[in-house]
Amino acid sequence: MVTISNLTLAVVLCVITMFCWGSWGNTQKLAAKSWRYEYFYWDYVIGLLLCALIFAFTVGSFGDGNERYSFLTNLKEADGSNLCWAFLGGVVFNLSNILLSAAIALCGLSVAFPVGVGLATVLGIFINYFAQREGNVALLTTGVVLIAIAIILNSMAYKKKEALTGGKNLTGKGLFISIAAGVIMSFFFMMVTKSMGTDFGPEFNEANVGKLSPYTAVVIFAIGVLVSNFLFNYIAMRYPVEGEPVSPSGYFKGSAGTHLVGMLGGAIWCIGTSFSIMASDAAGPAVSYGLGQGATLVSALWGILIWKEFKGAPKAANRLNLAMFICFVIGLAFLIYAKAAVA
To answer: 191, 246, 258: which is closest to 46 by C-alpha?
Structure first.
């Protein structure tokens, strides 16, 4: 199993992770020109699983780690409870992420990510803190408050934009779905990490007996995403957030190019996750965490600058978005320092 020991390379991978996590939504925006997000999401899930398998059978099977950490060996020795935790993490993630995709379809990248993923960051900090008691309480609290303010500012900017442009009157629905996605998303990472071991070096760590390697965990996680998608995406098709219900058979009418765009979206997310795993030990929890959460700002920038989601919005909305970025950056800085204090 490949691990990264060079700090510079680890930071570079963390930066790539940030852009991958913040950029996959662009593929949904591209696919929206051809068909609904419910169809896009099937391709996204397939791309995620295929990419996870490629990493597992390559860098997850060869490298400087102990042979028992290789994908197939690790999978064979894994405890059923750990497989279940990784699988359940995929189910929970999928529910949250399909809601996030619905929110993107309703209110765009520049709102769905700051509200949904920002809220997931805030709640995830509380969940992990009470589970591990890790981090400086005062700094964590300050960071959380600033990010909460950033979410509120972004919501206010969206409402002002909709009020002026006439929008589709979807403000309340889009924000509500973003909030629901964020609440659910805050739980999945804890489930996946519960299944994983630590310290994957050349010498086998007996504490890792029955635990999953990071690459094995991502594969089982991706299987959980795929299996649960038969239920969650069927419900999304049957009871859409916008428009008429669609038939699952419509998925097979898409062009090869449209399918590939969706698969690319899933692969981009998975590449970011795999790079984060490879870099986590060398970069340290503070750096890897801070850069990873920066994906929210990357996505918001895509929405505002490239997709022009706030085109025609009043100047007050633009000022609110600027204030949102400032609060989010400062809030992330506090969270990084809070974690660095115990790293």
So the answer is: 258
